[in-house]
């Protein structure tokens, strides 16, 4: 009877394990094929000045359009790429593509920063600083027009190594920001120690605004702390004018969110920015 049950279990579990394994391997394989086949794109989401409505920069967000799988959201493949190490290849492509695009905007006389998300593994590469420096050099982009979005986890792992690397990046003249601020483990001590220029308040604290009093308190505290430390503060995930207006009253510097625009292809960006600025000028 034990044997039967064992066999039953075997039959029950084996295909599931195979499916899990196969889909992982398949995803991994398709991800590489997609990279080689040029199926990745960068979309750009505006970062808006809360005082003027001017779009100061854009965040580059990766998009995967697979022949078979369709559109694969970053949440479905970035974690896998981070586990397998393939994020290093993806990250290198993102960095070079974003910098290339930003240099095109710069050549068109458009002062606009581009923010690039940097994964922990990518940041830990021994030659990461050189990769950033050569991307800038190859493109001719003003280093101040490149922003690197780091997660708090980067600061926590091997703090000495991270400090040296961040100082080298800051010396290049690039802007360093902390993404999803408030959700990780970074402390005020980290903000003092590392050459950080900008905080991105995580969307989870913006969602409850303007009604939620806890979110109000947290967001207000982050903004005040950021100002006291002379950091730029940007709110992520702003979807309503009520949220935007409250953030403006709280003296937040910038916002990013569907209220202005989701990420769009570079060819749609000027149109989106024009529309957003037209809307901003209208009395609400
Ligand atoms: P993130 O860096 O925090 O990016 C913001 C995410 O919030 C984006 O999702 C964006 O589309 C979404 N978002 C922006 N405004 C709003 C809003 O008003 N409401 C809502 N509900 N969502 C909003 P996306 O593009 O799906 O990216 C998810 C995450 O994947 C990113 O979070 C980032 O951690 C990662 N990611 C995206 N592109 C890259 C990349 O090129 N490299 C790396 N390493 N990670 C990336
Ligand atoms: Mg980001
Ligand atoms: Mg973020
Ligand atoms: Mg986030």
UniProtKB/TrEMBL annotation:
It comes from Rhodoferax ferrireducens. This is Diguanylate cyclase (GGDEF)-like protein/PAS domain S-box-containing protein. It comes from the Bacteria. Residues 24-277 form the EAL domain. Coiled coil: none annotated.
């Amino acid at each position: 009877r034990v044997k039967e049950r064992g066999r039953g279990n075997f039959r029950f579990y084996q295909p599931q394990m195979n499916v899990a394994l196969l889909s992982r391997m398949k995803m991994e394989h398709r991800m590489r094929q997609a990279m080689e086949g040029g199926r990745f794109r960068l979309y750009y989401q505006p970062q808006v000045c809360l005082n003027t409505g001017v779009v100061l920069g854009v965040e580059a967000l990766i998009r995967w359009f697979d022949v078979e799988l369709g559109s694969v959201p970053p949440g479905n493949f970035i974690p896998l790429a981070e586990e397998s190490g393939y994020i290093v290849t993806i990250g290198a492509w993102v960095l070079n593509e974003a910098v290339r695009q930003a240099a095109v905007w710069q050549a068109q006389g458009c002062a606009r920063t581009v923010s690039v998300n940097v994964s922990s593994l990518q940041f830990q590469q021994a030659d990461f600083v050189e990769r950033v420096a050569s991307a800038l050099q190859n493109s001719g982009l003003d280093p101040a027009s490149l922003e690197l979005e780091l997660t708090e986890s980067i600061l926590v792992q091997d703090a000495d190594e991270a400090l040296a690397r961040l100082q080298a990046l800051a010396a290049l003249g690039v802007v360093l920001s902390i993404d999803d601020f408030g959700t990780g483990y970074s402390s005020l001590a980290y903000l003092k120690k590392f050459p950080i220029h900008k905080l991105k308040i995580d969307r989870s604290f913006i969602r409850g605004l303007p009604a939620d009093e806890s979110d109000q308190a947290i967001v207000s505290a982050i903004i005040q702390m950021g100002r006291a430390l002379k950091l730029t503060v940007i709110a992520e995930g702003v979807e309503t004018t009520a949220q935007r207006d409250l953030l403006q009253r709280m003296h937040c510097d910038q916002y990013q969110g569907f209220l202005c625009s989701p990420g769009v292809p570079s060819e749609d960006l000027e149109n989106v920015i024009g529309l957003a600025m037209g809307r901003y000028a209208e009395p609400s």
